[in-house]
Amino acid sequence: MKIQHFFLTLLFFSSQVILAQVALPHIFSDHMVLQRNDEVKIWGWAGTGEELVLTTSWDSKEYNVKTPITAQWEVVVNTPEAGGPYQVNVKGRDSEVVLKDILIGEVWVCSGQSNMEWSATTAAGIDNAQEEIDQANYPKIRLFTVPRRTSEFPQDDLPGNWEVCSPETMKSFSAVGYFFARRLQKELNIPIGLIDNAWGGTPAEVWATKSVFDENEDLNADAQSLQETPWSPVTPSFLYNGMVHAITPFKIAGTIWYQGESNVNRHSRYTKLFSEMVASWRNAWGYEFPFYFVQIAPYKYDVPEVGAYLRDAQRRAEQNIPNSGMVVVSDIATVNDIHPPNKQDVGLRLGNLALKQTYGSYDGEVRGPLYKSHEIKGKTVELTFDHSEGLMAKDKKPTHFEIASADGTWHEAKAKIKDGKILLSSKEVKEPTKVRFGWGNIAEPNLFNEAGLPASAFITE
């Protein structure tokens, strides 16, 4: 009994020593980027009742905190203008954590499915892969990759660590994310931090919080009907729980998103699902950060028109989601490959969108023409677009326009540009009722604005 009591006592004191060790989530590591000019939360774990001192080198300020009964502590620090490198020290009674080479700048999350996850060395890679890899020396860009991870319940931590952008680290990181960060870093001349938690093949349902499905019976019914796949999980909220929730206390500037291919067969509710998903993320973070996303590219899906429906659902979602923006990439598609290798233009378009809308440092047009309204004048339909300055058809007259007749039959329309508007007519249609544009899985229309950005597919109500 005495020996047993001795080992129990030893186990008790050993557990107390372990609990007393100061620990931080993996999102805090050497080389990280913290959001500039902001109140930033730093948190972790230590022994219950332990008194900690956190010191930030940029202002030599000390923050004192006592760990509550939950054993989790948190401190809100004030960050300066962009710069670095800096250091953060967290000192407890018997242990200390020192974080080095910290930069202060702008932090963005890169999420979605395979076209966001795609790197310079994934499968077929990207355009000019080796050249881009060789030139990827950007010490002011820092990269954090979240490993694939599912969970039934929201997690407080996730694996990973921050890395300095170099040819070695860039080559396996999100190519779209890298090109986005490079655009921002060159224009703003400040550090950029990227957190990549994309997973190829994933439907939007796995990224939304549980509350989205608790509060929307229709979305829950769709989510529960998803069939298992060999390439990604389909259980609602499992990736939010495993790959998002743990970083929601970490202050970010915004999110870029590229997803939708896995939802084409459930396009009818995608506008609502995506809008609710974005709202659930913002609710988790506690503020309405910018959310910029990519409209899926034309691709030869097995079921006719599903790609067009999904692209239109994304167009409508942009109208529903405040502080958002969508980039169109129909002109850089590869209709026989769902992974277009031109990831640089995707990143650049997202970057320009952020530079204009979030940072106010870019004066050019960042969106392609977007359907605004239409007016039926006898046999002719007059279309008006937003972002239509210099509206033009490359090489020839505008293509991929259709008009519906009174019986609902669609007919190819003759289109011409006049005074910045599109005029449509068809010999087969005496009484036009509706219009659609770019309406096909592999449709690659030729309508652009003077910035060289393509028009989005749409169908009128």
UniProtKB/TrEMBL annotation:
According to its UniProt entry, one GO biological process term is: carbohydrate metabolic process
Q: Where is the signal peptide?
A: 1-20
Write down the InterPro entries for this protein, in alphabetical order: SASA (IPR005181), SGNH_hydro_sf (IPR036514), SIAE (IPR039329)
GO MF terms, alphabetically ordered:
sialate O-acetylesterase activity
Q: Do you know which SUPFAM superfamilies this protein is assigned to?
A: SGNH hydrolase
Keyword Signal attributed: yes
Family matches, as Gene3D superfamilies: SGNH hydrolase
**A Pfam family recorded for this sequence:** SASA
Alphabetical UniProt keywords: Hydrolase, Signal
**Protein name from the UniProt record:** Sialate O-acetylesterase
Q: What is the lineage of its organism?
A: Bacteria, Pseudomonadati, Bacteroidota, Flavobacteriia, Flavobacteriales
